[in-house]
Amino acid sequence: MHVVFGSSEVCTSGDVHEHGFRPSPSLLQTYQDRQLVEILETPDVELLPKPALVLNKSLANEGPSNTSLVDSYRQCSVTNVRHGQKLTAVSVLPSRGSMFVHIFKNGGTSVCEKVITLGGDCFDNYGWRMQGLVQMEEFFDASWFRTAVVRNPMSRVVSSFNEVRRRSATPTNTTADMLRSLALILKTMEENPTQNPETIVSHGQHFQSQTQFMLDDQGNKLPMDYIGQLTDLQDEVAFILGAPNLTLEFRHGPTHANETLLLHEIDLSVEVQQAVCRVYRDDYCCLGFDWPEACRGDVAC
């Protein structure tokens, strides 16, 4: 079954229409012992630099979010693991000893640009930048202070939809049209709980759950040291990068010619909100977010 979404198609069979998005094969294959990593078709991969400073893990208590989010993440059980890349991109600042996991739609582009200005670097597995690939075994180097920033799942889904719509160059839609498209994407994801979103909709990596970005290839949680909130991004990044006077320039994906055509969280119907809660249950349960009123009684941890 193929469902048209703008210029691409939503696919429920696992195949991708010839005019849709065709994802690259996974670049990372992590073995069970987490020691050996094969980089497929990528010889001479440059390794990540080593941290020049090793931070005490108890430093997490001093962050704007203290240990509340990372504790919630460590204690939860991940119930849904999708196919597709997990650890996708990181920004590293060796002088601080910090490693930042880029969870799409959570300020990662802004953090990367700031890290580079401070003498660090950004690495990813999609080829946007040429600095190299993230090797999973390097993430397990405990000398790094491994961090991420998360956001309310409902607002992130809306942001993801708007970015995918921009990148797909879809024609002008009404709010009702956009809601139908989002509802169909969520329905397809819910009916295919292990399917890679990149095979469901163009640029679907933006629809991966936040939890998914913090898993290894076997679906095990990565050893995060600190998790902050996007709502406090300026302060969180200043803490993570050890730059208290830092000024962050906020960056995002491509802009639409008419920004009034964006979907907003207030536009979401009760049914769409409930679908978001079901599809992103792990994000609500693992990252400490409260259930929206529309979802209470419909889904729980």
How would you characterize this protein structure?
With about 300 residues, the chain is α/β, with parallel strands linked by helices. It has one domain. It has helices spanning about 70-75, 110-115, 135-140, 155-165, 175-190, 235-240, 270-280, 280-285, and strands at about 1-5, 10, 30, 35-40, 90-95, 100, 120-125, 145-150, 225-230. The strands form 3 sheets. It has a 5-stranded mixed β-sheet. Strands 1-2 form a two-stranded antiparallel sheet. α5 packs parallel to α7. The model is unreliable at about 10-45 (pLDDT under 50).
Helix and strand pattern: EEEEHEEHEHEHHEHHH
- How would the global form be characterised? globular
Number of strands: 9
Helix fraction bin: 25-40%
Class from helix and strand fractions: alpha/beta
Q: Could you tell me the mean pLDDT?
A: 81
Query: Which regions are unreliable across 5 or more consecutive residues at pLDDT < 50?
Result: 12-43
Number of helices: 8
Strand content: 5-15%
Number of domains: 1
What is the strand arrangement across the widest sheet?
7-5-6-8-9
InterPro entries: Sulfotransferase
GO molecular function: sulfotransferase activity
Protein name: Carbohydrate sulfotransferase
What's the topology here?
Blueprint: E1 2-5, E2 8-11, E3 28-30, E4 37-39, H1 68-75, E5 89-93, E6 98-101, H2 108-117, E7 121-124, H3 136-139, E8 145-150, H4 153-167, H5 175-191, E9 226-229, H6 233-240, H7 270-279, H8 281-286
Parallel strand pairs: 6-8, 8-9
Antiparallel strand pairs: 1-2, 3-4, 5-6, 5-7
Helix pairs in contact: 5-7
